[in-house]
Amino acid sequence: MIVPTPPSKTRAVQPLFQIADEVGRLLSLPVDKTSVRKTKATPELKNVDHAKRLELLGGAHSIQGEALRGQRVLLLDDLYQSGATLNAIARLLKEEGASLRSLHWR
After folding, report:
1. Residues contacting residue 83 through CB under 8 Å, at least 6 positions apart
2. Whole-model pTM?
């Protein structure tokens, strides 16, 4: 299953969701855009230093339901600087019983 990270800001079209959908189509894998949710608003993190980023990400996400339990998950993010967002969500997914694969690019 492919899981994109939740966006930090609302847009009519989310580019990462489009990427996830296309990767899912090409690999014949389902895409889950709803199980990982933001629990609190965070600013865009691309211009925030690492220490502040970790502070802002604390408690910022949750896993809803059990759709990801026991699933092999490819976690996607569209911006990779420190890996803080991927690591925070990966910890939650592992706690929920998911098996992870990550993909990031610069």
Report:
1. 104
2. 0.81
